[in-house]
Write a structure and sequence with these properties.
By secondary structure, the protein is mostly helical. The chain is 70% helix and 0% strand. The longest helix has 30 residues. It is elongated and about 60 Å long. The two termini are 13 Å apart.
């Protein structure tokens, strides 16, 4: 496995763990504070942007140029 994809997987796992904790705190706050549920809208937008960036990064042929070079 190329090093850049391994690092990308590690970053995604750490970000997903942090996002899970943040969303859980946001969900508990939504029950306590009226209007806190509106914070899910920016959270959904951020998740969509992150998803698109990762999908573009994985499918990009230019980033795989160095993977074809023999070591």
């Amino acid at each position: 496995m190329p090093l850049d994809k391994f690092v990308l997987i590690l970053v995604i796992v750490v970000a997903a763990a942090g996002l899970t904790v943040w969303l859980a705190a946001l969900a508990f706050a939504a029950f306590e504070v009226p209007g806190a549920g509106l914070a899910f809208i920016p959270a959904a937008l951020v998740a969509y942007v992150v998803w698109r960036v990762i999908a573009d990064r994985v499918k990009s042929a230019e980033d795989d140029h160095y993977d074809r070079i023999e070591k």
